[in-house]
């Protein structure tokens, strides 16, 4: 799964890197090295209004997808499995019509070791952002139909392979830049082939142990993604209860 990631670039930097127009209206979150579910995150979508159709846009999304038909704004659906996304009621419409990219420096997983868990950060080979495949949905409170809509998202995950499988059995689905346009295009409804991970893209990733300070969502800053020696600090202890 993907339950924590980092995005350390400004909205202007992300808009430039993804060839997008910043449509966040100044509401985009700043650099965040400890993104957790229910936080606002930057996302890239394709414009749907007539005057914006096809325009690649940077928008603010809340992590934890709330389906359009939900009675309340529960944000438990932070991930969607690529293998089953087409069959799941909450994701059937988004996978056809509402796909997005979630820019990330990398993501965290906790590797089980003797007596504990070690946080591992996986990132790309250079300073470029990774594009996590995502879905989004727009929800309005049924009790207040005129209220401001909530636009939320989920990260697509797939089975880990190679060295990443030694860290965790799931990993985010990453998309190469050559697939961005098709993935975002709301006129393209069949994207089953893009749900298969690109081995060449994953081959360039690098994983490193990082500080257990990332365990607390309140902690933030670029120091969280810096490599630490496995014995400093010691791995996080497992709950024995």
Topology:
Layout: E1 5-7, H1 11-17, E2 21-22, E3 32-35, E4 40-46, E5 56-63, E6 79-81, H2 92-97, E7 99-104, E8 106-113, E9 116-123, E10 130-139, E11 150-159, E12 170-172, H3 180-184, H4 199-203, E13 206-209, E14 236-237
Parallel strand pairs: 2-5, 5-11, 6-11
Antiparallel strand pairs: 1-3, 1-8, 4-5, 7-10, 8-9, 9-13, 9-14, 10-11, 11-12
Give a short summary of the structure.
The protein is mainly β. The chain has helices at 11-17, 92-97, 180-184, 199-203, and strands at residues 5-7, 21-22, 32-35, 40-46, 56-63, 79-81, 99-104, 106-113, 116-123, 130-139, 150-159, 170-172, 206-209, 236-237. The chain has 4 helices and 14 strands.
Structural notes for this entry:
With 241 residues, this protein is mainly β. It has a single domain, classed as SOS response associated peptidase-like (hypothetical protein yedk fold, Alpha-Beta Complex). Helices cover 10% and strands 32% of the residues. The chain has four helices and 14 strands. Strands 2, 4, 5, 6, 7, 10, 11 and 12 form an eight-stranded mixed beta sheet that branches. Strands 1, 3, 8, 9, 13 and 14 form a six-stranded antiparallel beta sheet that branches. It is globular, with a radius of gyration of 18 Å.
